[in-house]
TrEMBL record:
<dbReference type="InterPro" id="IPR011711">
    <property type="entry name" value="GntR_C"/>
</dbReference>
<protein>
    <submittedName>
        <fullName>GntR family transcriptional regulator</fullName>
    </submittedName>
</protein>
<dbReference type="InterPro" id="IPR000524">
    <property type="entry name" value="Tscrpt_reg_HTH_GntR"/>
</dbReference>
<dbReference type="InterPro" id="IPR036390">
    <property type="entry name" value="WH_DNA-bd_sf"/>
</dbReference>
<keyword id="KW-0805">Transcription regulation</keyword>
<dbReference type="GO" id="GO:0003677">
    <property type="term" value="F:DNA binding"/>
</dbReference>
<dbReference type="InterPro" id="IPR036388">
    <property type="entry name" value="WH-like_DNA-bd_sf"/>
</dbReference>
<dbReference type="Pfam" id="PF00392">
    <property type="entry name" value="GntR"/>
</dbReference>
<dbReference type="GO" id="GO:0003700">
    <property type="term" value="F:DNA-binding transcription factor activity"/>
</dbReference>
<keyword id="KW-0804">Transcription</keyword>
<dbReference type="InterPro" id="IPR008920">
    <property type="entry name" value="TF_FadR/GntR_C"/>
</dbReference>
<keyword id="KW-0238">DNA-binding</keyword>
<feature type="domain" description="HTH gntR-type">
    <location>
        <begin position="7"/>
        <end position="75"/>
    </location>
</feature>
<dbReference type="Pfam" id="PF07729">
    <property type="entry name" value="FCD"/>
</dbReference>
Length: 233
């Protein structure tokens, strides 16, 4: 085995921690043994243990509460976990990210139109109502609300794995998504396209919801591609 592919002690310890959680029947919110107890159990130094714990915390598998202890994280049961070690994306990878979303999200919008109930649709409308209040330059809030809309639409499709895929893409590539907002630079147009998608979902028009989500993401990708390749002077 080459030096590049040989698992590190931290890798092995991370897996052993996950195995401890699984075999111990721990659930989100359960308290885990202290770092001292864990260090003794796994026969490792405290710094080595803390490195593994930081990696687990980055994926949401555990939560380290200052002055309280180590707890099983809310994301321990996720099937798809974001990679906290993802490197910065280049322009080509940024376009690939948008391309992936074009493949995944339109069918989910159609599924949301078919199955979402009234309360869920009302909550989705509230998300865009909130977004409308952030169109005057509050980009951090607008970004968060826009991503909430896309996450919620994926969740309403009713497939937890696909929802986690979308959620992971948007979580891992949050900085890229914020950059997209800046490059696209037409917040009203972006918002109007979201409203159009919502209108189709509320009308239970699965075909229109799918087509409008696809058109929206293709529109964003086209603008980003043009501006990356031909930046304004």
């Amino acid at each position: 085995m080459s030096e590049v592919t040989r698992p590190t002690l931290s890798d092995a310890l991370t897996e052993r921690m996950l195995e401890l959680i699984r075999t111990g029947g721990h659930r989100p919110g359960d308290r885990l043994p202290s770092t001292r107890v864990l260090s003794e159990r796994f026969a490792v130094t405290t710094p080595t243990l803390r490195e593994a714990l930081r990696r687990l915390e980055a994926t949401g598998a555990i939560e380290m509460r200052h002055g309280s202890g180590i707890y099983v994280g809310a994301d321990i049961e996720r099937l798809v976990l974001p990679n906290p070690n993802m490197r910065e994306m280049h322009a080509a990878q940024l376009l690939e990210l948008l391309g992936a979303r074009i493949v995944i999200e339109p069918p989910l919008a159609a599924m949301a139109a078919e199955r979402a109930n009234g309360a869920e649709l009302a909550a989705l409308e509230q998300v865009l109502d909130a977004a409308a209040r952030h169109l005057d330059g509050k980009d951090a809030e607008l970004h968060d609300t826009n991503m909430t809309f896309h996450r919620a639409t994926a969740r309403l499709a009713g497939n937890s794995v696909l929802h986690e895929v979308v959620d992971s893409l948007l979580t891992v590539h949050g900085p890229e998504q914020r950059e997209i907002l800046q490059i696209f630079d037409d917040r009203r147009r972006d918002h109007d396209e979201h409203l159009s998608i919502l209108e189709a979902i509320v009308a239970r028009d699965a075909a229109a919801a799918e087509e409008r989500m696809r058109a929206h993401l293709v529109d964003v990708k086209t603008v980003i591609e043009q501006r990356l390749h031909h930046p304004p002077k």
